[in-house]
Amino acid sequence: MNNLVITTPTDCEVVITRAFDAPRHLVFDALTKPELLRRWYGPEGWTMTICEVDLRVGGKWRFVSQQPSGKVIGQCGVYQEIVPAERLVNTETWEDWDGGETLVTTMLREDGGKTAYTSTILFPSREVRDVVVKNGLEHGAKQLYEKLERVLATLQ
What we know:
Layout: E1 5-7, E2 13-20, H1 24-32, H2 34-40, E3 47-53, E4 60-66, E5 72-83, E6 87-94, E7 102-111, E8 114-122, H3 126-134, H4 137-155
């Protein structure tokens, strides 16, 4: 049920789908509350050092994570649309790489207490999308969402 699926339906998009054994309001909380984000965001061994969330349309967010090697990765963006427990749309840029701005649309659908998660990432170009995919998107996402699943289990 919880298998991660990553597809590239267009030249500039990546779609990530996964199911979580938790109601969508808990998944939404885990995606938007700093105290929960700090517990799961980033692959195994990474530590989130900064987690700022201004959860309102036009509000900014910023995450900074440190890899086990010591390398620091920063991401930031602006919330474009928020429908609690259903839909979250935000921009995203990287602080250490000029890949341009992406648009991330996350949808949550609940059925029987389980949540179908779909995140569509629209990259500024095919080249940027391909760099992200080739640099370990699938491996990192798998670890990230396994950690999220474990956090969600503690919230129920």
